[in-house]
């Protein structure tokens, strides 16, 4: 239960209904965003949470979402910062508000964009947390492959590491996206952008075992679309995959703080660069729309090379 006045107030705002006019404006914005840009459902849900949160906050001060001015936005960001929200969270919120108010201006719902002169918070430059190749081997070997679900988990982990998939891409894979004969995977990424990724021999081996030994036991006589299945017949959720990663990290002797569900994707990219992969090729494999997003991995690779040089070079 919230114990301080600030916590009680924050909880009350979260539970408050969104005013009808604001709810209508949010729906119109999200519908337009989906129709014009093909934004992923997870991104739309994030935008919705941000906008509904701000709408509730505005309602508590006698104002509507679409009529907000710059001063109100500054007050909201100041209150969030005081409440402990991270710069990254506030930066994402600002991006959401920019997109919403730009939509309002285009639709002539208002004349100006109150976010125009608001600078985004400075974000600390963080490097992806990649596991070592030894740790990856331990993690991939952690599931008990003598059980159907353990074999499924081994195949999931092998595929995510082999192809550098996002968690959402992995858990939502349809069985039709896998072509074992050609050794490729068809992945639907962010913004409904499709890409083909080669599997690799090890991932293909475990997928063949999963499909022949484990999936028929899990699916029974049901014709099910997802590649990876729970006993319910549905694909695992992102939260379920998070639990699996932490569970097998403990089995592998890896500090849970050193790993996240995204860790296999980061490790895939870092290890490829360490072994000489081309940055452009890595961009295609990861499904990044911009090369600048991929370039952060070069910092990880450079750090690794510096350590090797210092350890092994006579004048390192």
Describe it:
The chain is mainly α and 316 residues long. The chain folds into two domains: 5-106, no CATH class; 133-312, Orthogonal Bundle (hpI Integrase, Chain A), CATH 1.10.443. The chain has 13 helices and three strands; from the N terminus they run ααααααααβββααααα. It has a three-stranded antiparallel beta sheet with strand order 1-2-3, with no helix packed on it. It is globular and about 60 Å long. The relative contact order is 0.09.
Helix/strand layout:
Elements: H1 5-15, H2 20-37, H3 41-59, H4 70-82, H5 87-106, H6 133-140, H7 148-163, H8 167-171, E1 178-179, E2 184-188, E3 194-198, H9 201-219, H10 238-251, H11 263-274, H12 279-286, H13 291-312
Helix pairs in contact: 2-3, 7-9, 7-11, 11-13, 12-13
- Please, what is the average pLDDT? 82
- Give helix % range: 55-70%
Q: In CATH terms, what is the architecture of the largest domain? A: Orthogonal Bundle
Number of domains: 2
- Basic shape: globular
Which parts are unreliable, with pLDDT below 50 for 5 consecutive residues or more? none
Could you please say which CATH topology of the largest domain applies here?
hpI Integrase, Chain A
Termini separation comes to 56 Å
Number of strands: 3
Taking Cα atoms only, what radius of gyration do you get, to the nearest Å? 23 Å
Question: Going across the major beta sheet, what is the strand order?
Answer: 1-2-3
CATH superfamily of the largest domain: Intergrase catalytic core
User: Helix/strand-derived class?
Assistant: mainly alpha
